[in-house]
Amino acid sequence: MVDRTSTAAIPATGSPVGGEPLVVLDGVNKHFGALHVLRDVDLTVHRGEVVVVIGPSGSGKSTLCRTINRLETIDTGTITIDGKPLPAEGKELARLRADVGMVFQSFNLFAHKTVLENVTLGPVKAKGMNRAQARDNGMALLERVGVANQAGKLPAQLSGGQQQRVAIARALAMNPKVMLFDEPTSALDPEMINEVLDVMVSLAGEGMTMIVVTHEMGFARRAAHRVVFMDGGQIVEQAQPETFFTAPRSDRAKDFLSKILTH
Amino acid sequence: MTLSDYLDQFAELFATFDVLGAFWQIVRLTAVSAVVSFVLGTVLALMRISPIPSLQWVGAAYVNVLRNTPLTVIILFCNLGLWAQLGLNLASPTSQTFFEQNNFRLAVLGLSVYHAAFVCEALRSGVNTVPVGQAEAARAIGLGFLPTARLIIFPQALRGAIAPLGNTLIALTKNTTVASAIGVAEASALMKTMIEFRPDVIIAIFLTFAIGFVILVLPVGLVVTSLSRRLAVAR
């Protein structure tokens, strides 16, 4: 378990829980045509660490998140997960993706499958787990995120908040080493944001390694060990949440925070 | 002429010629070709959406060549080229009904390879109705290309492709008449015979076949419309 009270004393770039490096990006560059979306990004995330990535839109934070399970390819640099470099397409890559949970902004639940089928599909088809066990695990996970009573419904019958919690359960069902959240609350109505954030906070409390792209500063303050601020495809600044929000060092971070924290 | 005179003409035609048998041949050609072209079209669609450039190329080349070749040319080639010239027998040569069987199967071959191109494109249009996030989510939980296509993309694409697939099936039903060019005794072959022997009742002959095809094709359209409503994926 992560001791949340001790994080303040630990330097921002170090590991908050003494874990070894789990996700390491080294000199990552990516272009979309002429647009240089990631510029020499170096980032190390340790086991058990919760890293929140923030920044203005178009700063490359979503792209960064998607490169980690290779939904986006990179041009140069290396990404290693648990000591292994990211494989190219093929079975190796599929196996790696099974270890990296991903939660999308638009949920992306399988529209023709029930909630429970969404959660059991990965374990059964990608990991070869038997159906009964996958079902039991799936129901336990749906229980945990509070949507077990919706197990037989299709995703479209659920609210956005419920869908996103199912999506988290679906990712957890693969028993991932690290969870990526790509703006998980940005498509939600305001009253549903907290139900999703609560699940994420409890997940963080259980020691899950998480990389979270979000605009939810409250979540960053409550659950993150480290805030990474991106702008123009670069990591401009990283610090513990309290330090970052109260005393940002760079002008770009100050400018960004002044725009979002005025209310 | 009174209405009963016309009805007498129809009765006479049905008594003299095997109209139902000819239409049954249409149904058989359609059913078998529909299944074969659906399987082939699915494989082609998989190739075209696969991440492997050489497979994409082969799929695209197939579709563009077959779709743009007249069906009559393909069917005649199956008979005159594949069978007569290259000796491709699709039935046992010692069989009593060799020509009937062989021509039927050659016609099915021609109809299937031609309509597979249209099935492929119909399925591909269905794939385009599936949001890209569905495939990303599938890949993100560790599914490879084929499981993603089989479990996530195609079940949803199929529902989006029902209308264009229905159109292809309707076209196939009517295109089976080209099989008469290689001696399959289907409806249009019988129609030619009937016109030759009974030119005096030509209106009745045309009406017989027009109405016959409408009866065959109309339910396809109705079923397609109701299916595409009922199976629509809620998002």
Automatic annotation (TrEMBL), chain B:
Subcellular location(s) of the protein: Cell membrane
Entry's Gene Ontology BP terms: amino acid transport
Name of one Pfam family that matches: BPD_transp_1
InterPro entries: AA_ABC_transptr_permease_3TM, ArtM/GltK/GlnP/TcyL/YhdX-like, MetI-like, MetI-like_sf
Keyword terms: Amino-acid transport, Cell membrane, Membrane, Transmembrane, Transmembrane helix, Transport
UniProt-listed CDD domains: TM_PBP2 (cd06261)
Keyword Transmembrane among record annotations: yes
Domain ABC transmembrane type-1: 23-224
Transmembrane spans: 22-47, 201-224
Main localisation: membrane
Membrane-related topology note: Multi-pass membrane protein
Family per record: Belongs to the binding-protein-dependent transport system permease family. HisMQ subfamily.
Entry protein name: ABC transporter permease
Natural source organism: Cellulomonas aerilata
Source organism phylogeny: Bacteria, Bacillati, Actinomycetota, Actinomycetes, Micrococcales
